[in-house]
Amino acid sequence: MTRRDYLQLVAAASAAAAASPARAAAGDADREARLKWWHEARFGMFIHWGLYSQLGRHEWAMEEEGIPIEEYQKLAASFHPKPNAARAWAQLAKQAGQKYMVMTTKHHEGFCNFDTKLTDYCAPKQGPGRDLVKEYVEAARAEGMRVGFYYSLMDWHHPDGARCATDEAARRRFVDYIHGQIRELLTNYGKIDVLWYDVNWPLNVAGWESEKMNDMVFQLQPQILVNNRNGLPGDFTTPEQTIRASNDQAWESCMTMNGSWGYHKADDDWKTPKTIVRNLVTCARDTGNYLLNIGPTGDGSIPPESVAILTSVGRWMARNGDRIHKSEKCQVTRSTFANFTREGNTLFMHVHFWPGETVALGGLTNQVKSARLAATGKEVKFVQEKFRVRFTGLPEKAPDDPVTTIAIECDGEPHQDQNAIRTGRTRFRVGV
Ligand code: GLC
User: Fold this and answer.
1) Please, what's the largest Cα pairwise distance for the chain?
2) Pocket of ligand 1 (CB under 6 A)
3) Which ligand 1 atom sits closest to the C-alpha of 48?
4) 338-343 sheet: strands from edge to edge
5) Which of 31, 46, 146, 178 could form a disulfide with 100 if both were Cys (CB 3.0 to 4.6 A apart)?
6) Is 331 inside a domain boundary?
7) Which DSSP string corresponds to 282-350?
8) What's the whole-number average pLDDT of the chain?
9) What is each CA distance from 126 to 95, 113, 116, 242, in whole angstroms?
10) How far apart are CA 76 and CA 298, in angstroms?
11) Which of 63, 151, 240, 267 should be mutated for ligand 1, with most atoms under 8 A from CB?
12) Do 36 and 8 belong together in one domain?
């Protein structure tokens, strides 16, 4: 074999690998097309709901408290959620300005909220006596929500869930089980928009057969989006409890409203509606998504604190939601009392700590053409100097709640040069 023959052979082999459906589906153009609705959505509802919701001590209670499996699995018999609890979730999501939902179909505890032929440890065959995922899918669609499935690869209940790491026969059984359940989920509920894998302990990409997993997923649901938690890059990254923009991939920050994903009745560490809106604006500024969690109780009720927060966020979204859904990458970031989004040549200054009748912005390099209050369209007067724009004649008290947005129309794409204020400002002689 000549060197050229050899190189041709290598090239052919890698072309064949690249032709696998998962790879093809992951092509940039195709990915952008699949991500279009998701980017415009920007704001989604995460729902953590399972047997742990009855305990009300966080979804990790089983492991953190070392609860024996025989004891824990009794929760499957006592799980009696009210019918169609998911309708209230979907209505709240819609009212909050969220556009998609992602629900736990199986969390680490191993209990399946869906109908599966592969285990009896599932809602239709236990306390609920019905398919909770089906109810969720129908409720989400009824409110025009896109539908996502969270699915934990790690499983604390399955007999092979840990020993699969050291015993090949166990790994084979367990991986067949996991792939089989994903196949069921993506076959039995119509079009699914997002598959949200979680925790790939204790195997690696080869052990989980993640390439094959994604191939199957895209074969069953060609338009679906998958995250990166089966060990492959997927369509988007998933910073957790933090906002971290990725420069080379779509990203979604997932976050709790208190400190727990699953219902935790004593966790009173609630974020304010202002914090939630600020986070949402920060995600939108850098073209990321915000997936905000609710942890319903065992009967499916949403904790009243979560309802109150989302209701308040929803009132703001009703007036300002377009700014979130239509935002484009925004270069302007610096202010101690505001954050920013952009649409074309318009900069939106989202003021969370309202300074009073004058609001100032430093370092804008554009000429301002006009300014208005975004929620009402009311004109705002302004004075522009070299390094500062002052918006004047504003009310002493913030006109909107929890954040007031000023729309600033510029003569080009808004750009801020904070450094120019330091270097370019006229300085006076002091001791030199
Ligand atoms: C973590 C936790 C889990 C939660 C998830 C959400 O991986 O293990 O409980 O579901 O994050 O991002």
Assistant:
1) 84
2) 48, 59-60, 198-199, 240, 254, 261
3) 10
4) 338-343, 346-351, 404-410, 368-373
5) 146
6) no
7) HHHHTT-EEEEEE---TTSPPPHHHHHHHHHHHHHHHHHHHHHHT-B-------SSEEEEEETTEEEEE
8) 94
9) 33, 10, 12, 36
10) 11
11) 240
12) yes
DSSP H or E run through 226: strand 225-226
pLDDT score for 429: 83
pLDDT digits (tens, 9 = 90+) for 60-106: 999 999 999 999 999 999 999 999 999 999 999 999 999 999 999 99
Question: 189: closest CA among 135, 119, 225, 143?
Answer: 135
Rounded to an integer, what distance in angstroms lies between the CA atom of residue 326 and that of residue 39?
9
Number of folded domains that form the chain = 2
Give the chain's length.
432
Residue 252 sits in the same domain as residue 367: no
Q: Quick one: 128 and 90 in the same domain?
A: yes
- Give the tens place of pLDDT for each residue, 16-31: 444 455 555 457 899 9
The CA-atom distances, in angstroms, between 164 and each of 153, 157, 232, 331 are: 12, 13, 20, 48
> In what helix (H) or strand (E) does residue 110 lie, and over which residues does it extend?
none
pTM (2 d.p.) = 0.93
For residues 349 and 315, membership in a common domain is answered with: no
Query: Which residue range is the domain that position 258 belongs to?
Result: 3-325
Alpha-carbon distance 143 to 92, whole Å?
10
